[in-house]
Structures
1.
Amino acid sequence: MDKFTTHTGRVAPLRRSNVDTDQIIPAVYLKRVTKTGFEDGLFAEWREDEQFLLNQEAYKHATILVTGTEFGTGSSREHAVWALKDYGFKAVVAPRFGDIFRGNSLKNGLLTVELPEAAVEELWALAEANPDTEVTVDLVACEVRAGDRAWGFEFDEFLRWRMMEGLDDVALTLRDEDKIAAYESNRDAWRPRTLPAQV
Amino acid sequence: MSRTPHEAEEMRPRTLAEKVWDAHVVRTGGAQPDLLYIDLHLLHEVTSPQAFDGLRQAGRKVRRTDLTIATEDHNTPTDNLFTIADPTSRKQIETLRANCEEFGVRIHSLGDDNQGVVHVVGPQLGLTQPGMTVVCGDSHTSTHGAFGSIAFGIGTSEVEHVLATQTLPQAKPKYMAVTVNGSLPEGVSAKDLILKIISITGTGGGKGHIVEYRGQAIEELSMEGRMTVCNMSIEWGAKAGLIAPDERTFAYVQGRPHAPQGEDWDAAVEYWRTLKTDEGAVFDKEIVIDAASLSPFVTWGTNPGQGVELSGNVPDPNDFDDPIQRTTAASALEYMGLEAGTPMREVPVDVVFLGSCTNGRIEDLRTAAEVIKGRRVAEGVTMMVVPGSAKVREQAMAEGLDQVFTEAGADWRFAGCSMCLGMNPDQLTPGQRAASTSNRNFEGRQGKGGRTHLVSPAVAAATAVTGRLASPADL
């Protein structure tokens, strides 16, 4: 996974809340069997509207999406994260995220940061007043900065470390393979199996 | 592992979910989250191809093929069993078949007796049992919590992780109780109850919590009804939802193909009986609901929390105190093409969809058939009935339910996810309005520009007859 330490870029101020993963990428775009190439599905229905934020020249090159609360609720589709990444977003800021989406984002090097409504409102206002405003999302300092404004954010220490190192979860878990094997040797024999016993 | 060292040490009163959690901890403590063992991993064609690719690239295999099972559901056609018209859908299904073949995973493909929506197939095979951890790359995995298991949806990276290690690192959740006192009134179903709960909590109210549904009304629900309730836990943001197993649960599991047998059955039931929240256990949060106050419930907006009694009206956005809710409601009404103040019973529909992992089980089909029997689907309304699995379809046909539906003018289909998410050709056209027994009324979910009202199977059937949102009592 890509490492994430800090990123500076422009903001796309998406003034919407409850943006579920069906809005981020509709199901018809989920048929690919690859992990890339989902950028055309991002906000596909909204992008048909010429006035939609990402169709405006001023926000076309934004790399930080700042959006309303409950972003990424609904379906577990990791394609939502891939679409945001493929489109060019490096970070998403919102007051609150859907749990599965948040987990998925952090496994793909897309930083999701929770800031209070008031901070999100300020960022929206800044980006609307001047789309060229540069904003920094800093995972090292756990801080979002814009000009002389700065907002701290909380971040789970383990997830932060994993993100900053770009570590692969599977490899981390397999360090404890002996514990997995020990657990398996103690499982009740009556637990259901989909196939005849393998081990 | 039901009597783990953890349990021997843990004498303090615990909730049901804590007991199941503790019994699956492979590793705990330190900076990393708990590592949980996964008892059952369900796969389908949409969220698995990239996970198998990841295994291939790393030279890994599936650690426990005997705890893994795949079915085809999201993309499958429902008008026939074998012709998948869309080449990308076909490719995705072919990819799943090839991956299962290569990695030795059991699969139930189109045409197989056990094909169907992944969350219908697990319980019907008896693979879903009390006290398990169940995951799937699908957010409605919470369905399996109805058996007293911790079951939740995961992303594709996590699918790969489970395939490779049979475990998942999971941050400790918080625990919530939803206590539903009293009995549901006649004509009020599990679907009405869960829609009501979501309207109270909003789409994020359960965030970070594993929720235990309990109380008299929950105990009185059938297993199908309990699955409907747990299924929609994700719609209010909960990590998972579960219900303590009881005699009804054991009776449902007993005799199914993968249920324990003989002495194993006795050992299993002995353990399962311990799976309840201890006296004095503390929840982080509790919501209490009076079942007697409930009535048929439907959604008016574009998220599952935007619901109202069928007897109510489309709300006025100006009546919401919270500014975010106000704007969300206003844009929802615009998308839905609804006027504030319109009685819900006056909202006309074009399509009725009966099916999905929420309401595609045999009891749901029976309920709807009972309402529609001897009646006709209204002029200009299309009703599509999609059983949750090939087995449900077979059972329904054995009971003559297909006849009831087709005689009423409804379309009797093959099993799959179908119009719940509109990945196959079963989609609404722009502006079409549906009464749907599925779980999400998101913009465009059931087809671009489609407008969805979430309803129970009984309301779906009555609505098909009148052409407007209705309950059986209106007929």
2.
Amino acid sequence: MDERRLDLSALDPARDAGRWRAVMDSTLARVDDVLLHRRQDPLALIAGWRRPLLAAAAAAVVVLVPVELLLERREARVETVRGLVAVSTAWAQEGRAPTGAELLRAMDTGSAP
Amino acid sequence: MTGETDAQLVARVRRGDRAAAGALAERYLRACRAVALAVTGDPSDADDVCQDAFVSAMERIDACRQPERFGAWLMQIARNHARDHLRASRPVLSIDRMEIASARASPAVEAERRDEQARLLEALKELPEQRREVLLLHDLEGWTHREIAERLGLPPGTVRSHLHHARRRVRDLLPELEEETDG
């Protein structure tokens, strides 16, 4: 491999430092106009926040969905217990023992037979 | 120069921060010019094109999907602008060359420099565009093989190969060209 660097300094923009400084200044002056517009543009401001907002929303979904599922499951268990209490009270008032099928149905639906 | 990453600077530019744009210009405008020079083959055109490309990048900064790869994105914009410029064959928003005050060398030295530059540009025209780009970014701008590979989207082996062939060809064409030991 040829590891000897070529001397390309004849093409170096810094050779004419004044000209290159002018290119730089002119570029930044035009950029200034662009950024001024951006600072005043509410849509650009929103666009700047769009990505972090989307990321935060995605993180919230990842955390909240399992929590919601857990809460739903606990709620379902409470409903089952409430149902069993209700049917057990009914059976006690009637003075009879429930059949196996009635018990299973009560546990399954959480409601009176 | 700031120690902030490209991604951090891009985030600040998106909020309209001028200093961040200035830091990106300090970091990339010369390389942008090298890419433009590789396409146009004309230093004055390259100055205009790199300026337009950088301003265009700032205007479209929200479209930079990978801010950590801002350099690569900007180089692509510069390449496209330079090609458009060649196709259109008309000057883009031009810097008034007559009004630029700069410390000029004596006419004889100036003429010698212009001659040296012209011979170098003629030799570079003999190279394929991508090899010119790699050569200018490495030997003129001082980018490393890895930086060129990342920002041009090329395998490091290809960068080394381009550099090797480009140097050899230019030396064949300009045997008088001074050499430096690679750092």
